[in-house]
Amino acid sequence: MINKRLLIKNLLAHNDESSFYDKKRQLNLHTKEGKAKFLKHICALSNSNPSNNSYIVVGVEDHDNEIVGDDFFDDSRIQNLVNAYLENPPKIQYENVPFPNLPKDKVVGLVTIKPKHKTSSFKKNIHTILANTVFVRVGSNSMPTQDKIPYSKQNIETVISIENSSRNSIAYTLDGVMDFMIERHGDMISQYKVFKELFVICWAGNPKKIRDTTYLSRVDIELINEQVKLFYSALDVVSIEYDEKSFTIIEHVPLGLNDKTSFYPLEQQKISFFDNGYYKIENQMLFEPPAFNKKMLHHIYNSNLALLDKLNKEVSISEREVKDLENLPSTLMICYLNGFEEAKHKLIEAKPLLKAQKNTTVYLSFKEAMRILRKMKYNKNNE
């Protein structure tokens, strides 16, 4: 079992970017350009490493390897994006890895690209990349090629050595449990559960009971053995179920026009553990968008656009409008889910304005809304 935090450290310590790993300050999958850059590196690393894993580390400064972290990224459907644009797509896995020096809401992303012998290529255009383009790694760069790619085993020994040096131990596991429960979450209720005498999951959150269900807010959940953060959210709430073989997380979204007291199931994530030392994560989308009165939504939609126009023109806003700004991302999302197609584009265009607000809850609300919309898109369209 590989300790992913240790693996990242070993990758960064090994050398600069190479033909088997890349590093990024952050990923931007909101735009066609950002998706194209990500897919280019996936294609190149896969083609250059047909016999071993290759990696992308996200949340690291390029010039000095400083670990600065990035936002928690829980999009299990990132594989669907790869499948939609690449012919012979590799299997990939995105994991969120916490580091002690980072804030609670920041992690280092680790993309693992599994080995695959067939050549990957783009099967349709995206941004400036044309269909049928093939990429390979030339040193630390992902470059297009028209040549036939020879089968390579050049990185097998190096990657296996790095992975073997990153194996977990009892000491790492115990240190991880103590760090999670005492150092990072000593201010809230935290628990742990051992599965199959091998796997340890820790979770923390603030409990609140609404009707017959106990929800947790400000939730943090980690698979300690691999130093992987399974779930983190500062706004959404979850309910947790577990038995001797599995651990299930059901994420709920608080949505409403005047308040957020109604909780809608968004997604279920079930981790199943087996006797042979393996585990499997399965995700199921549960979200059914709430329906609201169209006439009322039309009024709210126009009010939101007027508020954004004020921000764009740097016109001062009232205290009531400051409060409305906190709810703007979720209300625009509700409008989009109820047939206002332009609402999503308006929300994306507003990102710089919302990010610039002194009230950090505004931008946090934006990120949460985009996360939900992204999940729904990949679940519905496989794109």
Can you give me a brief rundown of this structure?
This protein is an alpha+beta fold. The chain has ten helices and 16 strands.
Question: What layout of secondary structure does this protein have?
Answer:
Layout: H1 4-14, E1 21-24, H2 32-48, E2 54-58, E3 70-71, H3 78-85, E4 86-87, E5 92-97, E6 106-113, E7 121-122, E8 134-138, E9 141-145, H4 156-164, H5 170-184, E10 189-195, E11 199-210, E12 213-223, E13 228-242, E14 246-255, E15 262-273, E16 279-285, H6 294-312, H7 319-337, H8 342-349, H9 351-355, H10 360-381
Parallel strand pairs: 1-2
Antiparallel strand pairs: 2-6, 3-6, 4-7, 5-6, 8-9, 10-11, 11-12, 12-13, 13-14, 14-15, 15-16
Helix pairs in contact: 6-7, 7-8, 7-10
